[in-house]
Each structure stands twice: as C-alpha cells, then as structure tokens.
Amino acid sequence: MKLDLEKVEPIPGFDKDEFMRTLIRELAGILEDTVGVQEASAYVNHVGLLIGRALNRDYRAACATDRLDQEQIASALVHLKKRIDGGFSIEQVDDDMIILVNSACPFGDKVVGRPSLCRMTANVFGHIAAENMGYARVGIKEAFARGDTRCRVSVSFRHLQTEPAADETDFFGSLA
Amino acid sequence: MTHPLSLSLPEVIALTDEAVIVLDVQSHELKFASARARDMLDAPAEADNTIRLTDLLDPDDGRLLRFLGDAATVSSPLIARVRRRSDGAVLTMKGHRVTSAEGDPSILIALKGNTELSRRFRLLAEKIAALDGEIVQRRAAQEQLSQNAATLQRMLIAVRQMSEIDTKDAAHLQDALDALRIGCQRPSAFIIGVEAGRLIVMATSGALAPLFETGSQLDVPGGLTHLLDLSETDCAEALRGALLKVARNTCDLTGLTVWPLHILMLPKAFLLLEGGIESGDEASILVETLSSLMSRASIEADLRHSQKLQAIGELTGGIAHDFNNILAVVLGNAELALDHATDPDTMPLLAELIGDIRDAALRGATLTSRLLSFARKQTLRPEILSLNTVLRDLAPLLRRATGAMIDTEIVGAGGLWKTRLDRGQFETALLNLTVNARDAMPNGGRLTIETANTRLDAEYAAQHSEVRPGQYVMVAVSDTGTGMSLDVIREAFTPFFTTKGVGQGSGLGLSMVFGFVKQSGGHVKIYSELSHGTAVKMYFPRELTNDNTETDLMAPAFGHRSSAQGHILLVEDDPALLRQAERTLRVLGYTVDTALSGEEAVVLLRSTRFDILLTDVVLPGGINGARLAAEARSLSPGIKVLFMSGYTENAIVHHGQLDPDVELLSKPFTRDDLARRLRVIAKADQR
Ligand SMILES: Nc1ncnc2c1ncn2[C@@H]1O[C@H](COP(=O)(O)OP(=O)(O)OP(=O)(O)O)[C@@H](O)[C@H]1O
Ligand SMILES: [Mg+2]
Fold this sequence. Notes:
The complex is a heterodimer of chains A (176) and B (687).
Chain A: H1 16-35, H2 37-62, H3 70-84, E1 88-93, E2 97-102, H4 118-133, E3 135-142, E4 151-156, E5 168-172
Helix pairs in contact in A: 1-2, 2-4
Chain B: H1 9-16, E1 19-24, E2 30-33, H2 35-41, H3 53-56, H4 63-71, E3 78-83, E4 90-99, E5 105-112, H5 116-163, H6 172-183, E6 188-195, E7 198-206, H7 223-229, H8 232-246, E8 256-263, E9 266-274, H9 280-341, H10 348-374, E10 382-385, H11 387-402, E11 406-411, E12 419-422, H12 423-440, E13 445-456, H13 458-463, E14 470-479, H14 486-491, H15 509-519, E15 523-529, E16 533-541, E17 567-571, H16 575-588, E18 591-595, H17 598-607, E19 612-616, H18 625-635, E20 640-645, E21 653-654, E22 657-658, E23 664-666, H19 671-683
Parallel strand pairs in B: 11-13, 17-18, 17-19, 19-20, 20-23
Antiparallel strand pairs in B: 1-2, 1-5, 3-4, 4-5, 6-7, 6-9, 8-9, 10-12, 13-14, 14-16, 15-16, 21-22
C-alpha cells in the first residue's frame, strides 16, 4: 500500500516558517540549558539588537526619512509583528508610550519556560524606538514564556531618571 | 530586594572577586577595574589611569568597537567573545550601559576567562560538529555503497558479455568494445592496434563511432613502438591528433584517456575512452577483461591456423602415399629398362631417355618426401646427435649451395646439448633453409648458421600453440636478404605457398621444415624484417639419456648386379608394384615367391621355407604386415623381416618413429637401397 503524503490531512511535518521557528526555539532551549538563562539572554539581546538595526534601516528607507516619528514607529512595530505573526495589536499609542499585546507568541507554546526569546522582541522594539526617539524603555509586562496567557509589551519614550525594573530595559539612541 | 541599597562597586568586588570594569562611553578609558579584571586583561599597575580597554584587547576587525558602541545603548547585557592583546587568549565579555547618580553614562563590563562557560560551549559545538560530521559521513557512505553496487552490477554484466563472445566472429572486437563502453558508462570508445604492420582503428563504439571508419590507418610517426615509449598524456595527444586526421567530420576528442592493451602479456594495442577516469578501478578491470579477450582471440586464431595446417597435412599425406606407389613403379621399371638399354647393341638414345625418366621419378620422390615431412608422416630414424657435428660435416655442401656471393658462417656453440632426431631429414631441412636464404640474397649477403642451448619458458609456451616449456637445442639460419612481410610469414609454412616464379619454387621447403621439426617434438619460428633479413629458428628438445652412440657408419654401397642368395617371400597388394619388386629382387640374385595378401602369404609360409619376408605394412584383409611378420616368425623361426611402406601411419610405426627393433624401407626406393637393406638384414641377428 502506497501512501500519498500530499493528500493526508492535516499535512504532517513543517512548512518553512514553522520549521525556522521550531529550529530557533530548540536552539534557544539548548542554549539556556547549556549556559543558563542569563547568559543565553545576553546572546539573544545581541542578536535582537543586530536585527533591530537592520529593520530600522529598512523602515527608514521605506518611509523615506532619516528619522521615524512616533506614529511611524508604532505602525512599523505593528507592521513588523504582523509580518512575523498576525497576533499583535496596539493597545495604546500616545506621545509617551506604545503598548502592544499579543494573543499568540511567534515561537508558539514551546516558548514556555524559554524567556530568553522574549529578549528578541525587547531588543528589536527598543533599538528601533531609541534610534529614532533618542531613548526608549521597553518592558515586557506579561509573557507566554513566563506562563502568562498573553504577551504585553510597553515601549515608553519619556526618559525618567529611575532605574529600570527587572522586566525593563533602557535603550539609548546611538545618534544622541 | 526593593530596598534602595546603596553599595559602592569596589565593596561588592572586594567580596566577590569578580573581573569587572567600568568604561567611559566615549573614550573607552578604564574608570574602574577590579584587581581580577586587571589581571585578566594583563593591564599595567593600578596607578595608571589613562589606559583604554581598546589598548588591552584585540580590535578584531572593528568588532570590539561595535560591541562597545552597542553596549552603550542598552541597559541589559550583550555578550561577545574578545581576545587579549598580549597573548590572544579568548575572554567572554558581558556589558551594558549604566548611569551614575550624577547621570553620566558608563559601560559596565564583566569578564570571564575561557573557563566553564566557553568550555561548555566548546563541548557543545564539538558535539554538534561531530554529529554533523557523522551524518555527512554516513550519507556519503550510503551513497557510495549504492553507487558501488550499481557499478559492480554493470561491470559484472560487461565482463560476462565479454567472456561469452565468440572470437571466430569477425565482429567480436566490436561487440567487446560495446559491452565495455556500456559497462563503464562512457560516451565513446576506440580500440587502436596494429594489423599487418599498420596502426589502425580496430573498433569504435558510441557517439563518435559514426565519424570513424574501422580499419582506417592512423598516421603516427614511429607507430606502436614509439607510442609505447611516450608518457600517457603524450600518447593520448598523439593518438588524438592521428584520429582527428581520419575523422569524417570535425569533432571534440579532448576528453580521451588511453589504456594500453596487453595481448599475451605484451602491449599491442590501445583502448581509448572518452570522459576521463573518475573511477580508475572499474575501467581497469574492464580493460583487463578486454585484454584477455584479445589474447584469447589471438590464441584461438593461432590454433585454428595450426589446425588448418594439420588438415592440409593429412590431405597431403594421403596424396603422397598414392603418389609414392606410382613413382615406385616408374622408378623400378625405368631401372630395369636401363639395364637392357645399356647393352652394347641397344641404342644409347634409349638409355638417355630412360635416364631422364629415372631422374624425374627421383625428383618426384623428393617432392613427396617433403610432403610427408609436412604431414608429419615421414618415417623418421632418430638418432642421438650433436648438431655441431652434423653441421661440420654438412658445411661444404651448404657453402656449395650458397655460392661465392654469399659469406657463410657456421657457429657451433660450445657444450651443445645432444638431441635426438633424424639426421637425413635434419640435413634436408637445413638445406631448404639455406636455399631460401640464398634466394633471398640474389646480390649476395651474409648467411649465419648457429647453434645454442636454450630454454623455452612457460610464458613462451603459453604464447605458441604446441610448445612445451623445457630445454631445447636451437639452430638458427639467419640471412641479410629481402626479409618477409607479415602476410608472407603467416603463410610461409603452408604447403605450395611461394612467392617465387613458376618453376622456381614449389612452396614446400618451409612446409617440410615445419613438419619435420614438429614431428621431432620441436618448434620453429620465423623472425623477419622487410628489407633487413630473416632468421628461422628451429628448436629441438634436448636429449637427456646418456647415450653416446654417434652416427652409424654408412654401409658401403653395393655393386650394380650382385649375386645375392636367399629365398624371399614378397607381399604387396599393389600388383604393379609387386611385379616390379619381384623383377628387381630376381635381378639382385634372390629367389622370389609373391603374395598379394596376408592370407596368401600365410599359405605359402606353411609350405615353403623362406630366408626373408619383405612385406608392405598396410595389407588388405585381416592380416596386416605386423601380424604377418609375427606369423612368419612362429612358422619359420629365424626368418628375417623387412617392411616396406610409403605411408607410415600404422601398427608398426608409432608417432612416425620406428619401433626400435623393426626394419622399414621407405617407398619409393632405389635398387641400391633395397640391396643394401637386404644385405644388412641378412647379416644381422634379428630377434
Ligand atoms: N630466408 C627467406 N627470406 C625471405 N623470404 C623467405 C625466406 N624463406 C622463405 N621465404 C618466403 O617464404 C616462401 C615459402 O618458402 P618455401 O621454402 O616454403 O617455398 P619456396 O622457397 O618458395 O619453394 P621451395 O622451397 O619449395 O623451392 C618463399 O616463397 C619466400 O617468399
Ligand atoms: Mg624454399
């Protein structure tokens, strides 16, 4: 009996996107287990920063400006998240702050217990915001990785002279 | 830990002994460095404050600066690997932006040696790499395995096909090449070899085949010998050039590789394959198969040739037998007539005419004798000889035969082994070779006849049919004459093959030599080069029994009419021959009774006492010569027996050689021959 896998529903295996997400998730898992969450986060930070830099260049070129304004940043972030995964929506945008929420993590349910991957989002968002606004504080208030039922990310532009909290990171624009 | 706890960095460091530094964001000057950090960075003494981190670490193509720039923009740590400038040791560096109470930004950096963390990373990386390697290897091995199996299968098919090829088939080489080419998956293939001295395309197969004609001659200066001296690439180049010249159309022959083909262990041809040597192994197995096929073809062709010669030999033997009987009559009667014709009152003209008849008959007898030699049916009287002695005795005759224009040298090797052969036949063979040499040197030249001890080894024997390896006495007759082409060499031993004009050559000289040598258990081989000369080498097996008897002394010739006495019973089934022999015996002085068959003879033997039984070997009816002789000895003890025969394939003669105690007279014979043999027999003590 010959089985035509193309006709089996649902199609087994991964498509390209699923494959890449799974790959990254597994790599992060191995990294955390090997070097610890702290060190792993530092690695992911670095990667997120590099990706953020590239994306910032892209969005600036697309908006034909050398500095994005608040609105443009907000729509860039949403657009970006939409392209990666459709779940993000804007909870709040004003002069001081953008808050985004997501009902599904791009990395899926396996992200639970793998908080280092949240650093990706934080750094991409933070870098783009700070590069254009001079400063940004990114907080991941709720996260699937930490067992929450959704993901909630705040990006605030007002430079308070307070120390960032444990779930917050300050970003400074390199052009400042 | 939400208490606003204000601790100075040095306090913490003093406790933990961490490698921590604080840098100026812009200048990367060290604002603070723990003792351990200084240690790790190989930094100078604490007093020196103006030191920059960038002076202590390797710039690593700008990566260090980029990292410090990035770390200055973010409050959570980034991580990177850096290298110590002093010795290149690897360190792990984590860093991020901090802001002092006064609001000044700095970079806080923690350093780790190449310890636990990087060791674990390395282990991890090594494990992953090892796994990767293993996967790649396994995949490659598996691929190789299935590829090998397929290759093996293909080759097996090709080898089987090639081994089943019938070499009698004219297209056998073509078929073999097709099988080979398909077996090793090449687009085109050629066999190039030598035929009749010319380098030719012997077979082509595949895509390029239609562009070449089989048999077309290739122009390579120096031919095969030259090609074999060249390196592989030069040889390929030379053949490629020669092929392009005979191609029907322009074509690309750049991808040809050359393989020499060994036929009977000697490189004699080339295989050309298009498409390089990805896997030399498989091709070389097929090349070897092709070589052995070609060797087999060559041996089988040889064998067919010698079988052909043998068949002609049998035919010739039969003809010679009949011819001898006829000649015997002519000769005998001519001799009798001559007796009467020389009476004083008979016309001398008659004597002359009859003399001519006898001469002609004798020539005919020589001819049939040579035919019989070729047919290997000659009656041989082998004796143990030193061929040096024979040559010495023969030298004057040979010199006379060659004439003054030819410088003849006879070189006998010292310590020459003895051999066992028929002296008379050997002399005839040598004379034939000498005459051939003379004919090949009409304007004079050098003739060398030499002897030597040699060995023919297994390898040589393998290359020549009917040769047994062992020790041989060699006699070579070499001339500096016209030489023979390959075609002539191939046919030279065939009876009646001659290149000489009508009346000049009968084409039986070499046939005689061939038959005689073979019948003596030997071997003969022609080496010749056109316009340089020819050497014919005869090999006779070494005689190992320590018999020192030299040549019998020739019995003295008998007078014309001797008055012999004795009663002879003559048995011969050919009436004409019987009558002639009877008359001859009477002339010699014997009393003769005759019988036409063995049975008749037995009847006579019962009633009469005979001194000698002279009988043909082959007789009609149930009693042949051998049986008759046995009968005679029992009926009449002390009777002497002399056999006559023109043809010796019979009960008395084994392999053309007489049983040691049998007396045989070859037909046709002269009266002198007969008289001498009867005299000798009468005197001898026969068993
Ligand atoms: N020494 C030689 N040099 C050159 N050609 C030779 C030599 N010996 C033989 N041949 C060639 O081989 C042929 C056959 O030789 P073979 O002795 O059998 O016959 P023949 O010499 O032509 O005639 P026959 O010997 O019967 O008088 C010759 O016709 C000649 O072409
Ligand atoms: Mg001759």
